[in-house]
Amino acid sequence: MNAIQVTAPSALVTGSSRGIGRGIAVKLAECGVARIGIHYLKNKDDAEQTARLVEQRGAHPTLIQADVTQPEEISRMFAEAREALGPLGVFVANARPDVQHFYQPVLDLAPEHWRSAMDSQATALLLAAREAVKLMPERGGRIVAVTYAPGGQTGSWRSWAAMGPAKAAMESLLRYLAWELAGRAITVNAVSPGATEDSVFATLPSAVLEMLRDWAGDGWVPMGRLTTPADVGDAVALLCSDQAGFITGQILAVDGGASLACADFPMAFQKG
Question: Helix, strand, or coil here: 196?
Fold first, then answer.
């Protein structure tokens, strides 16, 4: 039996055909969630693979296709979730567009890049949370967003210029949602993974990923490696457990301590 237990009857995880979303869906299945909605946009084959992994862990998967940048698609997604999953205990907002839709330095951003980022993050969370709470019990429920907190605090990852503000807006919104929903004992939190294997970084040239692995091993990640989707799944499961019912409006870093490093000093100095 898994040490973490999530007693929610069902969960919907957006962007769960692969990567971080898959890691979250699989972990929730391991932790006892009986019915899991696996959302995807285009990659049905990958979503079916996630479904097989979820099924192997004793949960019943349902595939739901939708474009979370479109309000009417979000409404349809939750209508399908209601039919397939019944009462909803957990909603995880993880989906993002493919990099070509938003990945540009700030001076090269076109309005469609900006809209793609904002619509898929802050706007999607607002609309999806409204729909999710309609399916949750009168008291209790979990909403978790996947963010990248440093992207909203720094400006050095130049091509993250649309997604950084979009994630920051999403993080701000979750605090308002947390306050609004606390009276119903619905918690709203976020996890912030560090540089993660099998994530957006996997879409970049392989040399970039190797550079990140070297960076992690050199000490910039105290734990000595990159984050994995399973690490993120563990953190989400913790926030969705019964024992986390008094934690809300928070952002949990899942980065092996990378956020502890100081950019003011070379790593040789920080290692002592």
Answer: strand
Is 146 buried (19+), middle (13-18) or exposed (0-12) by CB count in 10 A? Answer: buried
Return d(Cα 31, Cα 216) in angstroms, integer: 29
Domain spanning 10-270, CATH architecture: 3-Layer(aba) Sandwich (3.40)
Tokens linked to 196: 């993660």
Strand 90-93 versus strand 141-146 pairing type: parallel
200 Cβ partners below 8 Å, 6+ apart?
A: 96, 99
Our CA dihedral for 144, 175, 103, 48, rounded to 10 degrees, sits at 10
pLDDT in tens, 132-182: 999 999 999 999 999 999 999 999 889 999 999 999 999 999 999 999 999
Q: What is the pLDDT of residue 223?
A: 94
CA distance 260 to 255: 9
Give alpha helix (H) positions in 142-257: 163-181, 206-215, 229-240
Cα–Cα distances (Å) from 71 to 125, 130, 210, 258, in that order, read 11, 11, 38, 36
pLDDT-derived band of residue 209, with 50, 70 and 90 as boundaries?
confident
* Residue 182 Cα distances to 140, 145, 173, 251, 255, angstroms: 9, 16, 14, 16, 28
What does the chain come to in residues?
272
Closest by alpha carbon to 64, among 99, 17, 29? 17
Q: Fill in the amino acid letter for 272.
A: G
Q: Which residue has the tokens 């979250």?
A: 24
Mean confidence (pLDDT) of the chain: 95
Dist. CA 201–CA 87, nearest whole Å? 35
